[in-house]
Amino acid sequence: MTLLYFAWVRQKIGRSEEIVELPKDVATVGALVAWLAARGAGYAEAFADPKRLRAAVNQDHVGFDAAVSANDEVAFFPPVTGG
Prior knowledge:
Blueprint: E1 2-5, H1 7-13, E2 17-19, H2 29-37, H3 41-46, E3 54-57, E4 60-62, E5 73-77
């Protein structure tokens, strides 16, 4: 799975993207957020309040109940990104 991080999410984690092996028990965006939050301090800070995040799976905006699979691209970003 390819993970993309934008804005302050990227700053807290310290990278803009990474490739991870999706754990077998992670089937939704929400479960992915919980798994990521347990990966270390920067992740815990970035994913501490899921209400402050938005997600996209394969470039489609989705809710945290959306399914994810090993070949997906999942992006996390704040509700408002400037530009």
